[in-house]
Design a protein that fits this description.
single chain, about 90 residues, alpha+beta, Alpha-Beta Plaits, 4-stranded antiparallel β-sheet, globular
């Protein structure tokens, strides 16, 4: 069953976050995720939605996800205290 890593974050400039993520594209595409979407919902708030085919794939990608966020925090793009990851398994789909 598919699993998701959903990570909320805050950034003062989502365009700069998007530019940084583009430089990480090859690394992120190699994580085994079905998809990774970054969503801005205004006022400097965003969320990363990453869907994996199973728990093992998500576990294998964890260090890459941590490094990606650490790189963005280090670059001053994301507030490190704002990062809130959540994980869950799909139990129903429509």
């Amino acid at each position: 069953m598919a699993v998701y890593r959903i990570t909320r974050f805050a950034a003062s400039d989502m365009d700069k976050v998007g530019e940084k993520v583009e430089t990480m594209r090859a690394t992120l595409e190699g994580t085994g995720a079905d998809f990774i979407d970054l969503v801005s919902y205004g006022n400097g708030k965003g969320v990363v939605l990453a869907k994996y085919p199973d728990q093992a794939s998500m576990d294998a990608a964890t260090e890459t996800a941590r490094k990606a966020f650490a790189d963005m925090v280090e670059a001053g793009l994301i507030d490190g205290d704002s990062i809130h990851p959540h994980m869950g398994e799909v139990f129903a789909s429509f």
